[in-house]
Amino acid sequence: MNEKEICGKHGEVSVWIVCRHVGEGSADTIIFSENRDALCFECARDFKNLTELDVVAMCNECLKDFTAKLMIEAKTFDILKNRVKGVEYLKGMRKDTSESAETL
Q1: Cβ(32)–Cβ(90) under 8 Å?
Q2: Which residues contact 82 (CB under 8 A, 6 or more apart)?
Q3: Distance CA 18, CA 29 (A)
Q4: 75 near 41, Cβ under 8 Å?
Q5: Residue 96 has what pLDDT?
Q6: Cβ atoms within 10 Å, residue 42
Q7: What is the pLDDT of residue 2?
Q8: Dist. CA 68–CA 98, nearest whole Å
Q9: What pLDDT, on the 0 to 100 scale, is given for residue 65?
Q10: 3-state secondary structure the chain
Q11: Fewer C-beta neighbours within 10 Å, C or N terminus of the chain?
């Protein structure tokens, strides 16, 4: 999904579907997926029971800002790896291996 919405801070941007905890900035953990969704660990554990009231759209840039905040607050790599998972999906670093081979 690559839908666009208007963010008051960043204008027209791509959005992610995130759990309400991530969207409100109250999550202290986050898991990203290739499907452009992000959940806190608690919601990820119980994702089958999430309803449309449990998720919101979040601007890609706001999500990057929130993730950076979590990463800075972690202070050490050991803490960071237990707080943020799948960040490569947010950064767009994940590429098809055939595409990567062509660029070499």
Answers
A1: yes
A2: 29
A3: 12
A4: no
A5: 42
A6: 12
A7: 66
A8: 30
A9: 94
A10: CCCEEEECCCEEEEEEEEEHHHHHCCCCCEEECCCCEEECHHHHHCHHHCCHHHEEEEEHHHHHHHHHHHHHHHCCHHHHCCCEECHHHHHCCCCCHHHHHHHC
A11: C
Structure tokens at 50: 């999430």
**What was the pLDDT predicted at 31?**
96
pLDDT in tens, the chain (104 residues): 467 888 989 999 899 999 999 999 999 999 999 999 999 999 999 999 999 999 999 999 999 999 999 999 998 888 888 899 999 998 764 444 334 333 33
Q: pTM for the complete prediction?
A: 0.80
Tell me the C-alpha distance between 71 and 13, whole Å: 23
Beta strand 55-59 with 84-85: parallel, antiparallel or unpaired? unpaired
Do residues 22 and 65 lie in contact, with contact meaning Cβ atoms separated by under 8 Å?
no
